[in-house]
Every structure is written in structure tokens, then in C-alpha cells.
Amino acid sequence: MIEPRQLSESVSMRVLRISDAAALAAAYVRNRDYLSPWEPMRPEEYYTVDWQSSDIANRLVAQEAGEAYPLGLFDGDRLVGRFNMAGIVRGPSQSAGLGYWVDGAYAGRGLASAAVHAIVEMARDELGLHRIEASTLLHNAASQRVLLKGGFQQIGMAPRYLQIAGKWQDHNLYQVVLHD
Q1: For residue 124, what are the contacts with CB-CB under 8 A and spacing of at least 6?
Q2: From CA 90, how far away is CA 134, in angstroms rounded?
Q3: Hey, where are the domains in the chain?
Q4: What is the mean pLDDT of the chain?
Q5: By the 8 A CB rule, do 73 and 109 touch?
Q6: Signal peptide location in the record (predicted)?
Q7: pTM summary value
Q8: For 162, what's the count of Cα atoms within 13 Å in the CB-facing half-sphere?
């Protein structure tokens, strides 16, 4: 079980619950324009409580299987960020992928860096993973700084890697190796 972590005086990180669906939907609505350059195009239903409830439920099933950890950042009851460790592979790989965003009103406060640092520790110490990978758009300097502060190293560039904001875009690839 992943325990909640205090990231700042008022912001904590914990595994999402289905009861967080309304807060998550509200955060996506609040940050829709802010996130749109960095995320896939979303159908209107994505911004609803029903969609977010179903998505959280699916991710919790994946968590039970040891394949993912859906995490939220909370300032009291207000959801102010989302971090997903997904695609966890055991066996010889012992790896996971990391994706994240922080509410535009909370950006620049070091919360993403604190969360990534906590996730790296959790992945190493609690989950026994060997490696975490992440990617950023080439021009997403803020996210690149977060990853570098979290111990990630750039390992390459993938042309037309993900469809973001409606078009296939190149991404820088990063990894952090957790064990020698």
C-alpha cells in the first residue's frame, strides 16, 4: 500500500479514490486551456464526473494488479495535480512510465519536483522497481527541469512519439535508474 506523502505545508499526495472524481473533473475543467498544449485532445465527456469516476476505477483495478498507481496532489480537498505511474512491468524489466501535471495556479512552486522525488523514492524503496521512464515535448522546458531535478537523465528523442494537441509530436525521452 502506498502511503500519503506531505509535499509542502498544505499539499499532499495520495492514491486517488473514486470519491475524488468530482474534484478531478473540476481540476480538468479549471485547467482545460492550461493543459491543452501538453495533452491529447479530449472528448467533452472527459471533463465529467462520470468519465473521471470510470477512469479512476479502471486505474484502481490496475493498481490492485500491481500495474499502475494513480496519484493525486491535494491542497485540502482541492485536487491540484495528477501523477500516474503506469505500465509497470515486472520480471527482468522492473520498470514503469510516469506522467503528470500540476494545476496552473500551483505551477512554479516546486510541487511537481517534490512529487517526482517522492515517486522515485516510492518506486525504489516500496515497489522495488529498477527504472522509471518519462517523456516530454521538446519545448516543455518546465517538465524537463522537473525530471532532471528528480534524477532523470535524457536518453534520446522519439520522433512523432505521441499525438498531443491533435498532432504527432516529437518527445525527449528520460529515465531514472533506481538501482546500480
Answers
A1: 178, 179
A2: 17
A3: 5-177
A4: 96
A5: no
A6: none
A7: 0.95
A8: 17
